[in-house]
Specification:
Elements: H1 2-27, E1 29-42, E2 46-52, E3 55-57, E4 60-62, E5 65-68, E6 72-76, E7 81-83, E8 100-104, E9 113-118, E10 131-140, E11 148-153, E12 159-164, E13 174-178, E14 182-184, E15 186-189, E16 193-205, E17 209-221, H2 225-233
Parallel strand pairs: 1-6, 1-9, 6-17
Antiparallel strand pairs: 1-2, 1-3, 2-5, 3-4, 7-8, 8-15, 9-14, 10-13, 10-16, 11-12, 11-15, 16-17
Length: about 240
């Protein structure tokens, strides 16, 4: 009798966990093209979110809307695959020369999410020197061993890496921003599947002193069959838009 009850309770627990996981997946909608930013704002605390400015999410264009980072999955299509060039200056990518990786580009490409970093909501004078630092603090890859990097290229294609998980993460894995700022960079991934990337914003506020806050962003790189199913499932529920 007790064994049957235990099995029954275990089954109920499993169904509850599965239902919760399904609901979380369903709440995440897919950003497939168009422009938007990793939005960085501060109002009695950091607010790292997604600011859609022409982003196409579930087939709908959002010209000026904000969403919680956890509610949107950014999709890198197969066309974003490229090959790592030779040269030690490319080592932070995290794969050997000639090996493939996928990257959201720093210049706009039709059919690919154009992801920037925006601090337009932070006014000049809010932070000392108008300086905001965005630090890479967490990388969760599909296999647990993949590498993520953030870099910009110049007119000659030479890279400047701001952050890379290939040699571990520390305070140097950061992007320097200013108040009322906006910039674009390449976001690179070394394997397919679902990723979670965590950034920490920090700066010395004019009232609150030195403050930090984190936000985690979800990205799908050329979905595998299981991931593709999750992306289809994500279309079941309506996107939860933030209210400003």
């Amino acid at each position: 009798m007790h064994l049957r009850i235990a099995h029954y309770l275990t089954a109920i627990s499993f169904v509850c966990v599965l239902t919760a996981a399904t609901q979380r997946a369903a709440a995440q909608q897919t950003w497939t093209s168009g422009h938007g930013d990793i939005g960085i704002a501060y109002e009695d605390g950091w607010d790292l979110h997604i600011h859609a400015e022409g982003a196409i999410i579930e087939g709908v264009e959002y010209p000026d809307d904000e969403f919680d980072a956890a509610d949107v999955r950014i999709l890198l299509p197969a066309s974003t695959q490229t090959v790592r060039p030779a040269g030690a200056n490319w080592d932070p990518i995290g794969v050997s020369a000639g090996q493939p990786y996928w990257a959201l580009p720093q210049t706009e490409v039709v059919g690919v999410p154009f992801v920037g970093f925006g601090t337009e909501e932070i006014l000049s004078g809010d932070f000392a020197g108008d300086a905001i630092t965005l630090t890479l603090t967490g990388v969760a890859s599909p296999s647990g061993t993949g590498n993520f990097s953030l870099y910009q290229t110049d007119a000659f294609g030479e890279p400047t890496f701001h952050a890379s998980s290939a040699d571990g993460l520390d305070a140097s894995d950061s992007l320097a921003l200013n108040a009322e700022d906006h910039l674009h960079a390449n976001l690179a991934f070394t394997e397919m599947g679902l990723w979670a990337i965590t950034f920490e914003a920090s700066g010395t506020h004019s009232v609150h002193g030195f403050v930090t806050g984190e936000g985690t962003y979800l990205l799908g790189v050329v979905p595998e069959p299981g991931t593709a199913a999750m992306l289809l499932l994500s279309g079941v529920l309506a996107l939860r838009r933030r209210t400003r």
